[in-house]
Amino acid sequence: MNQKEVSELRRRFRPEKSAVSRVYGCYVNGSSREIISYLDESLGNMPLEEAEKYLSLLKKSLSGQLGKNLIDVVFSTAQVMDSDEHRLLSALRESELKDGEIRESFYRTVMDSLDMGEDNYLILLAHDAYDVPHRGKDGEADPDGSDQVFSYIVCSICPVKTCKMELGYFPGENEFHSCAAGQVVSAPELGFLFPAFDDRAANIYNALFYSRKPDQIHQEFLDAVFRTEPPMSAAEQREAFQGALTGALEGACGLEVVQAVHGRLLEKIEAAKEDKEAEPLALSAGEIGGILRDCGVPEEKAAAFQERCDQAFGGAALNPENLIDAKRFDVKTEQATISVDPAYSCLVETRIIDGRRYLLIPAGEGVEVNGLPVEVGAEEPAK
User: Fold this and answer.
1) Least packed by Cβ within 10 Å: which of 81, 185, 231, 345?
2) 259: helix, coil or strand?
């Protein structure tokens, strides 16, 4: 799925646009792994504000960055043809979640595997049937034309947290007293969409998995529900990339090389953001090796980097957004940290002055220290 397709589905989760008529789920005791209560409610029979809360929780399972928070789950042909995990997901979808026994089987699969620590949590399920509008050559949707109906399920798994006692005002008594806020459903920790919405149509060979924290993808859930090869988390990908870079380049991994690699990857990330219909950005180890060669890295070291990447990633394409931090560029020593807007990382230089190594940044106008304007280069006051 690309970003435009994800955004198209996200817009469905509004009361005026959604075909979600009911929400299903169960409230689970995290420590005992027992169901506390079940949820089976009609959105049409509840207050609008409450319905919007449910839809918002489901919508959040389609949020974040593709390749980081949103991860493609790919089923093999054998799984699609005959496997318990795909059969269960397909049954949930085909029954439109109306079969209680199938829902119960799914709840048990999740409860028996998911580790949420001591936190209680809500398993929230919804089915939607999206009458996909036809798009003309100009890309505009034709509200009177439809190619097909996209039938899908969305699952959100939300921690439920007990709020602390707060001081509240009681109008009848004109006094303030302690009051309990009760238990509050938090934003989803994980979730998924099945099937995927590829090329604006159902793709039963894929699901879209959501993880609020890219470095904590709940592998136990993926193993139980999808039984597919586990994807590397964003944190694991960055660590593997950095290890391949420093291990292959050794002494050649200088600031200038890192700046150049960071800058080139950042350019590709920014270019991809402008094209909402593009597939998630992916580069091969060879393409990144080419960036190193352009930076003057010797051929043998660039080749060594590619080999290490192939070993670490199994030949899979690399998502630049998982390899660098596109929002910050930090240079750290034991005593100091220099933080620079990534677009201006080239301002940081290394110099050896009188035998000592220095990090230098040019100081123009508007220099501040803890909010206090200072003059750089001004004469020292007389002592």
Assistant:
1) 81
2) helix
Q: What contacts 103, CB < 8 A, 6 or more positions away?
A: 24, 92, 97, 125
Residue 261's alpha-carbon distances to 114, 216, 221, 285, 308, in angstroms, are 38, 27, 35, 13, 17
Token pair, residue 244, equals 């391949």
The span from the CA of 188 to the CA of 160, in Å, is 10
Render pLDDT for 209-262 as a digit per residue (tens, 0 to 9).
Answer: 999 998 888 989 999 999 987 677 788 888 888 888 888 887 777 888 888 888
Q: What single-letter amino acid sits at 174?
A: N
Closest by CA position to 124, among listed 25, 251, 268: 25
Closest CA to 183 of 36, 43, 341, 59: 36
Please tell me the distance from the alpha carbon of residue 43 to that of residue 51, in angstroms, as a whole number. 5
Q: Where are the domains of the chain?
A: 15-225, 232-369
Dihedral over Cα of 161, 162, 164, 167: its sign:
positive
DSSP class per residue in 202-255: EETTEEEEEESSTT---HHHHHHHT--PPPPPHHHHHHHHHHHHHHHHGGG--H
Under a CB-based contact definition with an 8 Å cutoff, are residues 320 and 287 in contact?
no
d(CA 233, CA 216): 7
Name the phi and psi angles at 362, rounded to 5.
Answer: -70, 140
Q: Tell how far CA 65 is from the center of its chain.
A: 5
End-to-end CA distance of the chain: 68
